[in-house]
């Protein structure tokens, strides 16, 4: 397998492939072209020649070659793939590739619900698990993999496996505190709720506002724009009074803003919106979305480095890395205004 074959599969020049996979020069191609290149790398099972790379980059240590790592999406993946996963996976893939490993097999927990391993030829005892992992899925993965690192926003009990976490619980706390500083009390939660620490954080943070039963303020939906749009429609049709929506995922906020616009409600004059993740697209919304920046690329890099360190004997105890987040104040939040 050669760079020329990767180039032919991706429809680019060999030099472009080399700049992307060897020097990590992301300015060498558009994001769409980079996606084609990395897809070809996965499909063809390409692993760099470490000896040749050592000649070009003497600072690189010799690493084991042709070692596969599996990638597991810890949520059912439908037609819509949350950019959260895309960014994490790409960062993890680049780091693994640079170390002489191949992040080759990609599957979701939906593929293992029958208790059977999705692949029989994976030849890997190590996995990168992206996102919130359910107890049953975890028990299955622990049967199949010796080494696991979980990267996401929901912490697991210490000692189970290595983790790189940007706390969704603390992120929601920050969102609620920020909205309350603007005078908001009637704050809705939009997003997933089952086994979700962001939802628990919302309940805890709202407990002292004396709103009574918070059920009317909770818009349960999957993390995608369509569900966010439909959930906002349900909120508005229900007649519940609210001045802000806390979206546990930026993609829900995209749909929520579309619904509000169709109902002739202005953001933030009528309703404030805040999200979590700070995906690239939210800068292009009008108004621009106030959100929590989660350093996904750094988390992907750290997670794979932690996994490889375990594989190569660098540590045996379970390690948890807490990664900080940042509140990014843009245009979608303003002082509370009574809507009725």
UniProtKB/TrEMBL annotation:
Keywords: DNA-binding, Transcription, Transcription regulation. Residues 1-57 form the HTH lacI-type domain. One of its GO terms (molecular function) is transcription cis-regulatory region binding. SMART domains: HTH_LACI. The keyword DNA-binding applies. This is LacI family DNA-binding transcriptional regulator. It comes from Flintibacter hominis.
